[in-house]
Specification:
- The complex is a heterodimer of chains A (about 100) and B (about 150).
- Chain A is α+β, with helices and mostly antiparallel strands.
- Among the domains of chain A are: about 30 residues, no CATH class; about 35 residues, no CATH class.
- In chain A, about 35% of the residues lie in helices and about 25% in strands.
- Chain A contains 3 helices and 3 strands, in the order E-E-E-H-H-H.
- Chain A has a 3-stranded antiparallel beta sheet, with no helix packed on it.
- In chain A, strand 2 and strand 3 form a beta hairpin.
- The longest helix of chain A is centred in the middle third of the chain and has 16 residues.
- With about 150 residues, chain B is mainly beta.
- Chain B has one domain: BH3618-like.
- Chain B is about 5% helix and about 25% strand.
- Chain B is built from 1 helix and 9 strands; from the N terminus they run ββββαβββββ.
- A 7-stranded mixed beta barrel of chain B has the order 1-2-3-4-5-7-8.
- In chain B, a hairpin with an 8-residue loop joins strand 5 and strand 6.
- The termini of chain B are far apart.
- Classes of the chains: A alpha+beta (about 100), B mainly beta (about 150).
Chain lengths: ~100, ~150
């Protein structure tokens, strides 16, 4: 891992391969154990908190690991759970 | 196109989150599985992910698709998109959870698919299906986590 020291208002610049576009990460301030970071990136770049990525990754692995169990759970049992989670007026139509 | 109809292969150009090599899935919607669907990996033998409409788990689910994610799906209209929540199914049905934080969304016309993270939603990656909803939601207290400039 590359380790760099930065002061407030200093930043780092990343270049997107192919397009040459730049991602600029700037330290905006430090308050105790919290660091405020500003990110300027092309719209096509998705920026995510690491802990959320790890949470979804872990759930993907767990779902795959337990995938075989799905065949052993009766569909009507699952259907009962899902019906219980949704009020009588039914699910939304989606985004 | 009805919900039962889907492209033969869903193509995740970046793979699933944390699993970049899992890029191609078929969608098994056998009536015997209903209300489940199965995302069956074409890249990783033995990997199949049970999934369900997130609205069957949480009736007021309200995902917002970011600009980068929509572009990756071919700038599809909402009517062309279908959402699925991956289920983590345990032997005990009361321990079944749904990933509402990182749903799968795909373009029904083209098969372009993406697993997105709804950063600012407060939804959980392990939303309990078998217990009272909304008790396991992860509180998200930040201003802008998936910001694009």
């Amino acid at each position: 891992m590359l380790v760099l020291t930065r002061r407030p208002e200093e930043g780092l610049v990343f270049t997107v391969p192919g397009s040459g576009e730049r991602i600029v990460v700037t330290v905006l301030g430090v308050d105790g154990d919290k660091v405020k970071i500003g990110i300027a990136a092309p719209r096509a770049v998705t920026v995510l908190r690491q802990e959320l990525v790890e949470a979804v990754h872990n759930q993907n692995l767990a779902a795959a690991r337990h995938g075989a169990v799905a065949g052993n759970v009766a569909p009507d049992v699952l259907r009962g759970l899902l019906v219980a989670a949704v009020p009588p007026d039914g699910p939304g139509s989606g985004a | 196109m009805t919900e039962r109809e889907a492209p033969p292969v869903l193509a995740f150009s970046e793979g699933l989150i944390g699993c970049p090599d899992w890029q191609h899935f078929s969608l098994d919607r056998s009536p015997a599985l209903a209300p489940l669907s199965l995302l069956v990996s074409a890249d990783q033998p033995g990997v199949s992910l049970p999934a369900v409409s997130p609205w069957l788990v949480k009736h007021d689910y309200s995902p917002q698709l970011g600009e980068a994610d929509r572009a990756a799906l071919g700038s599809a209209d909402d009517g062309d998109l279908e959402w699925l929540a991956i289920l983590n199914i345990q032997a005990d049905p009361l321990l079944v959870t749904a990933n509402l934080l990182g749903p799968v969304v795909f373009n029904r016309r083209t098969g372009a698919a993406r697993q997105v993270i709804l950063s600012q939603s407060g939804y959980s990656a392990a939303h309990s299906v078998g217990a009272a909803p909304a008790q396991d939601e992860t509180e998200v207290t930040y201003a802008r986590a998936d910001a694009t400039a």
